[in-house]
Structure prediction request, 791 residues.
Amino acid sequence: MTYELLCAGFGGQGVMLMGQLLAYAATIEGKETTFFQSYGPEMRGGTANCQVVISNTPISSPVLSSPQVVIVMNRPSFEKYEPMVHSGGILFVNSSLIDLVSQRADIETHYIPASQIAQEIGNTLVANLVMTGAYVERLHPIASESIEAVLKKTLTGRKEQYLALNLEAFKRGAAVITKTKEQTT
Amino acid sequence: MSTQTYRPLYQRPKSLSPVRNSYCPGCHHGIIHRLLAELIDELQIQERSVIVAPVGCSVLAYNFFEIDAIQAAHGRAPAVATGIKRVHPEMVVITYQGDGDLAAIGTAEIVHAANRGERITTVFVNNANFGMTGGQMAPTTLIGQKTETTPEGRDPLRNGFPIRVAEMIASLTGPVYVARVAVYTPPLVAKARNSMKKALLAQIEGRGFGFVEILSTCPTNWGLTPVQATKWLEENMVPYYPLAEFVGGPQT
Amino acid sequence: MERVLMKGTEACAEAAIKAGCRYFFGYPITPQNEVASYMSKRMPEVGGVYLQGESELASINMVMGASAAGARAMTSSSSPGISLMQEGISYMVGCQLPGVIVNFVRGGPGLGGIGPAQSDYLQATKGGGHGDYNLVVLGPSSIQELVDLMKDAFEIADRYRNPVLILADGIIGQMMEAVQFKFEIDPTTLPDKTWALDGAKGRTKRLINSLDLVPERLEQHNWNLQAKFAQAAETELRWEEFLLDDAETVLVCFGTVARIAKKAIENARQKGIKVGMIRPISLWPFPQAPFQKFMAGAKRFLVVEMNAGQMLQDVRLAVCCQRPIRFSGKPGGTTFNPEMIEKLIWDLEEEGSK
Prediction:
């Protein structure tokens, strides 16, 4: 199974970190993974994006044509990438910052108030972890435990104080999906 | 008759190759080469020295010293020397460069090597023109000086001003010894030798970058006899390029 | 063996250290700045030297000096910086000095942009600087391959006493993948270089030089160099054959594009198209053999590059007018995606069936 994901948002919303986190988790699970970010001046202020592929088999292209799954963190990213989601694919929308609704009937869309949830638990900066939680819970490209392991491994020293917050954000994001599932079943 | 009766007072230094050099009659490169070779012998560094030859009249310098040598691209000798020195800090690395090489195309390399305080020694021979290519204007050509490319004399409005390289290098914090010398009289030769020794010792003792600018004649391209050229150097170059120790001398 | 997730630029730097390189000289330029920052941290840990030159000119000449002193040395840059280094590279070839240069190619000409490109192919493979010479040029298509080729690059450079160039691009530099380092070379265990400048102690002086004012001797020097290049041209060929056994349409791609093309080929194969790919890994010497090997079954060739048609020239020589060749290029720093390449494959298929 191969999972393709494109994450987009402002520079500073932790979009790259989201992609890297997934790639690290895939690596520790022994899976194949590629992480490719847009780079250059547009990283400051404008829209930034990264593309992540996770697979059990060697990955050919790190560049995606039409991604199966897209996470958009801000409105310009929604406008740019919502039309690009592969038919039958999945779109995750940070509904706290994006007041648009997808008109596409051929994709599955999840509206996650990621920034709002992040604010509720203490810091809007962890909105990316909320989204990661929702994404992992919906698709399971890697185990939740692997994300937790990566967070524990990387948030050390001075950054250790943010570990609990990040773990909580991840869980809250996952809970949004779980709740949706319960409601639909 | 015992051989001990005779003590040689003057002989070719061990570090100077027993070959004819390629310099014109009256050019000072020959004297400067000898001084450098004498110092390499005196400081007992022949077995751990390397010379980086430039592009210019002294491009063949590697043939004239009995030490390891490499020939660098035009102006890049200080960068090549940096690479060698970083691999072999115990070696004595010497760049030997002319004014076209060092003061024109190689200004970036010399300024930054000096500024980094590279533990290398630079012997800079200034003869106020590009010698090997046939006497064109160099950055060091004097105002009014006629060359192949300044037929009416160097006009500062068109070609700018002669660069005083030793003073420029001395304005940096990196160098520990900077001097300008000349070799057109025996006392000056002795002083030049002393300056070159100080510059080498700065490196050998690991203190930092040493730089000696040496004013030289170029009789062929100046269109003068060797004696006239010496007089021209004294009367024209020395007033503009003062002989002094700028860094590391007794006053500083 | 441990797999670590690394950025291409950082993996390149670590691979160089593990290949026994202890001297890195460079000058900042996007998109490969992490090579220098990684080296500036790692080199002191392994007793090596990281030094930031005042320019690419200085940096390559520092590499030349370190190499002349007998060490494994390298630099890394991107296109405009590599142009500046051509002088030093030519001198290193003339002086018969090894060294490794990595080019994370960006779009040109001039200052161009910072997007990934392959537009330095001709500069890399046809000499680059002045004089009759070639560098062995290796074009990785994944970070793991970049890592493995770094070791090969230092070995090839030492074997032929000639610089080796790694032709990567901005995508390989900036993406992350899990890699393994399957080698760890202690530079103190490498054989002594009997030509290196380390002081004329107990031996005659050594000279490293590219100058010879006697034309007949310089001619002989050139023939000696050519003999090395001929040897390298036979020995250092590397390529990948991808799904070629029954291929009627044969793609020819290198580096990142080859990777993107694989996905397109896989997709087209699932729909029944007989398509495969020759991926040259050594760009100089250019592998001709696979073209002859698969010529009988091939109906057409399709060259896809992130430039306006550079490797295309070598493919034309290899195919030698035996089959039609199509080209699609993207110069200036833009990238293909798998869908675009799949469309090129379909277009050719439809043309062929008409």
